[in-house]
Amino acid sequence: QVSPGLRTPRLPVWLCSLSGRHSVLFGTDSQLLSDWKAERIFHLYFYSGQQEQTQTAHLTIDTHSHHWEEAQREGPCSSGRRRPALEMAIRTKWAGATVSWNGTDPFF
What we know:
Blueprint: H1 4-7, E1 13-18, E2 21-26, H2 31-34, E3 41-47, E4 57-62, H3 67-73, H4 85-93, E5 98-100
Antiparallel strand pairs: 1-2, 2-3, 3-4, 4-5
Domain Deubiquitinating enzyme MINDY-3/4 conserved: 5-103
Pfam families: MINDY-3_4_CD
Keywords: Hydrolase, Protease, Thiol protease, Ubl conjugation pathway
């Protein structure tokens, strides 16, 4: 029998398989599970367990930003439309969201 805590988590947790590697994306705000208003700007954490990741990545997700705001933040040497697989996975839940890596170099 599955524990009720596993069927209805108290905090948002997603298990991910990105580029053939397993990882976890999680939040520490339980409001993300029950209040759609909490999905405006919120924080998620990503951990892959891979040797090259020395600390959990802290991401800020903004679901109400505009595509032209994101374009202004990109530098002249940016890779254009290419995004890390993790950002694309986040956008399957929150279409059009911008993801700030808060100083961490994007990976995956």
